Prior knowledge:
Blueprint: E1 8-11, H1 17-20, E2 32-37, H2 41-55, E3 64-69, H3 73-80, E4 85-88, H4 92-104, E5 108-111, H5 119-134, E6 139-141, H6 149-158, H7 161-164, E7 177-184, E8 188-189, E9 192-193, H8 203-206, H9 214-225, E10 236-249, H10 250-257, E11 270-272, E12 275-288, E13 291-300, E14 309-315, E15 319-324, E16 334-339, H11 344-357, E17 362-366, E18 369-373, H12 382-399, H13 406-425
Parallel strand pairs: 1-2, 1-4, 2-3, 4-5, 5-6, 7-13
Antiparallel strand pairs: 7-14, 8-9, 10-12, 11-12, 12-13, 14-15, 15-16, 16-18, 17-18
Amino acid sequence: MAQKPIQFITLDPGHFHAALVQNKNYDNVESTVNVYAPAGQDLQDHLKRIESYNTRAKNPTNWVENVYQGSDYLEKMLTEKKGNVLVISGNNKKKTEYILKSAQAGINILADKPMCIDSKGYQQLIQAFEAAKKNNVLLYDIMTERSEITTILQKEISQIPSIFGTLQKGTPNNPSIIKESVHHFYKYVSGSPLKRPSWFMDVSQQGEGIVDVTTHLVDLVQWAAFPNVTLSTKDVQLTSANRWPTTMTLSQFSIITGQNQFPDFLKNNLMNDTTLNIYANGEINYKLRGINAKVKVLWNYSTPEGGDTHYSIMKGTKANVEIRQGKAERFTPQLYIQTNSVSDSELLKAFEVLQKKYAGIALKKQGSEWLVEIPDSYRTGHEAHFGEVMDRFLDYKAKNKLPEWEVPNMLVKYYTTTKALELAKKK
């Protein structure tokens, strides 16, 4: 019997995010985790990542993975229910079914994004939230970007009228909110080159880019522009949506998967025998309560320097607040304020409110804009954000309640991405 109030269950961990929520220990969580999965390389890779956390020199974890392998792994987990917080991060083709059946079984769920990858999955997700409410359990997705300090401060500044004014409405050609994310198939995670499962390159299993990474971007638009506001699908008006492929050679595919040939399920996506088309890129232009926004995701194979990057701007009537993470920033996200009707003295005075809340931050004039200087202590890094999301979820679990706006807004988010995919495919 568990001696602590929380015990994790991990289901079919095919994505490395499943391990990242165990990148730290939690005071109120049992060290034994019950894992249910089909036998295969995905499971072995997951267990190796957990073992690397347990054996690292600095802040080692103490997880004990109790593993059930078998083709009936889902049914076994639902029957045994050996735990009360289920982590799902893997093949997105199966994920929504996992979520629905687990919610119907009365299990709390923390699911990696995206919780659905098409309109059929969206309908299942609606059922899953209804089941979670009926069974008095929580269903929540892993929105790590809410833990990034530049994103937090961008949102905070946009809520200070004396600095930002009010959010502009913008136009489809000049949106008031733009969020762009650049990712790479080949990259390092936890200090090692990331090995990806071959199905990750199959958009019928992973999901197209327009419904995958854009989940984070759509979430941030809602979270920053309408904090603590309950939204509905009626607030969303799609303007346009586009999708296009990233090409990957067989040799590149082999490097990140360890396989020397394309599996049969990818054959329909081949341009020729040695080049794969992956619809990993997408752009959505839409209005949210009359505010014009654009979100865009790009996937490259790799990058000669830096890593995944994020760009974001929120345009106010008095100032713009912008996150840049390019070469000029040494690929570290930096936050800038560009004022148009606020004096320097007014800005510095109004900024004191934030300095009381976030000790150590400061403003530095750089040409015509201001750099928000952020102490390194706030820059915990992307991998640590998974533990921070789990901390928030465990706090909600202790109260057995999510904020009132979270569930409606999750549904709005997935409505936006799945409808955008439909619109993009019509082209």
